[in-house]
Design brief:
By secondary structure, the chain is α+β, with helices and mostly antiparallel strands. About 15% of the residues lie in helices and about 45% in strands. The protein has helices at about 20-25, 105-115; strands spanning about 1-5, 10-15, 25-30, 35-40, 50-60, 65-70, 75-80, 85-90, 95-100. Strands 4-8-9-7-6-5 form a 6-stranded mixed beta sheet. Strands 1-2-3 form a 3-stranded antiparallel beta sheet.
């Protein structure tokens, strides 16, 4: 799971607890202007194959965390429960998408959508 912080110009994702170890990362920062879209109930979170793991952990049904290459694009994952995952699509960034587990998927999507609408 992760905590999402929205500043006037940046989306900051704080990786929580032991997930820092599994994901090999503690924080991600993305300019709001580089967010192409965001959705709750990310369908890819329910898939068994999340791409080729480059660095991180992939224990099906337990945790998917770290850097993956899927369909030729980089993705960062931090998901325990696929029903709490959101997908953040990016452009002009190393990662094409971030798939992140959050406490309140619909509220988080609404907050990010509002922030990128005002960029």
């Amino acid at each position: 799971m992760a905590d999402i912080e929205i500043t006037p110009d940046t989306l900051v994702i704080h990786i929580r607890g032991a997930d820092k170890f599994f994901a090999l990362k503690s924080q991600l920062e993305v300019p709001l202007s580089h967010i192409a879209g965001v959705e709750a109930a990310a369908p890819e979170a329910h898939e068994v194959w999340h791409g080729m793991k480059v660095a991180g952990s992939n224990l099906p049904g337990v945790i998917t965390a770290g850097r993956f290459v899927q369909h030729g694009e980089w993705a960062f994952w931090d998901v325990h429960d696929p029903d709490r995952a959101i997908a953040i699509r990016l452009h002009d960034e190393h990662y094409a998408k971030l798939v992140i587990g959050v406490d309140d998927p619909s509220g988080t999507v609404s907050a990010i959508t509002a922030a990128i609408a005002h960029r």
